[in-house]
Amino acid sequence: MPSVKLHVGICGGGMGGLAAAIAIARAGARVTLLEAARELGEIGAGIQVFPNVSRLLIRWGVDELIGDNLIVVDEANTWAADGSLLARFDPKQGAKQSGFPHWLLVRRDHLHAGLTESARRHGVNLVVGSRVNKLEHNKEGVKATTTQGVDHEFDLLIGSDGIKSFVRQQLFPNVVPKAASTVAAFRGILSYEEVFAKVPDARQFLRNTMDGLIGPNGYILLYPLSAGTELNVVTLFQMDRVVTTPEDVDINEFRDLYKDWNPTARKILELVNYTQKWPLLVLPPMKTWSNEHKNVVLLGDAAHAMQNHMAQGAATAMEDGAFLGTVIGDVVRGNINLTEAIGLYEKQRIPRVWVKQQASFVSGTINMATGEDAARRNRASAPEVKAWSRNVVHPSQELPPTYKSWQMYCTPASVPGILYYDAEGDADNAVCEYLQQKTAVDEVTLVSRGLWDKWWGVIDDNGVPCT
Fold this sequence. Notes:
The chain has 16 helices and 19 strands. By secondary structure, it is α/β, with parallel strands linked by helices.
């Protein structure tokens, strides 16, 4: 059975676009990635990687490319604003449960560089300085034109061009991102050398650990980057109004938000000279991510931007890419056509992404709870902390079974469907289910008619794959 020749274009070279490029190239399609910037790169600070993505990095060899800059922490701790321990998770236990590293921490630019190199090694044609400003599509194919007037023709174009997506604007001009809450984010990176020199008591938090301090209306995340030499600092707070665009902020105004928090945390924040507050924009749910011909489709923030309280924005985009790679592999092998592949992608991914968006809202609400809501939250995890404290003194005692912690973004037992998800496995299962549903079953052998012949045609009489 001859393979189907496909040329797939990807508009946008962020995390999701590169993941899609790698996955689709591995599936046997020709891939061209068009990036508007003159150099492939990534802005921002740190990123958290859970098993739903660490499995992809390992399968694709990206973990080896990043090397020591991909950090595994020893503990994940949640502290109250006053510095008392509220919840704790052991990443080693998470890795044992999922089979993949549970908590990897990495700078965004290091992860992006690893994905870029992996894409090159998989044969992806990476074309920089190519901003798409014109899009034409019909049932025969897609033509993308850049600002330089260069035309690129594809069988399928994937719009992975971010929250301000040009491709989405062409397909769905009325779908625009919005600020769904008053929460704003502040980000920065410090060196551990400076932190320990100026804030010696910070060592109570910073021990190759992931630490979150949560308090009324906000929280702080602290974790290592760059082989343990840098400290990533992310803070979020409920502002008095909705923030819709990045805004300059007075440094004293920022620090005043956390004036009643733990003194050590405040000292760390004193070292970060924030200059901007960042809005947390989301996209409303969409019924479709593709055009009528199913040969232009959206991915990542272009389709489903979400708040960051579950640390799943980039992860979800990479899942999209891995899923697309798997179903497109079945197009290449002739099991399904392109329209069917995109249909399966939308059927599986749209509701899953909506669940993630909702989990993110809930996670943020719990972390920033106030009053009696915060007190109830803290009481819920008190037995876990007490048992852990006893175990430190008497290591031979076993801890009680893990419960569904309110700290959803880091405790896999609370949301295993998110943190243990396998995008490639889900895609393969979706194709199998689809083929079974559309194929009659032989009443005697109980084998779906035609599927055996389809498989048999892949191998010739000498056991050599057909081309």
